[in-house]
Amino acid sequence: MMPFQPDVLWRRLQSSPFRARFR
Question: pLDDT tens digits, the chain, 23 residues: what are they?
């Protein structure tokens, strides 16, 4: 199990208002 999970982080970002900034 790696401490850094980009997949989970990305999913959280997508579900967050931050995703609007990334677009």
Answer: 566 677 887 777 776 666 666 55
Rounded to two decimals, the pTM is 0.29
- The contacts of residue 22 (CB under 8 Å, 6+ apart) are 13
- Residue spans of alpha helices (H) in the chain: 6-14, 18-22
Token pair for residue 11?
A: 């999913």
In single-letter form, the type of residue at position 5 comes to Q
**Residue indicated by tokens 């997949």:** 7
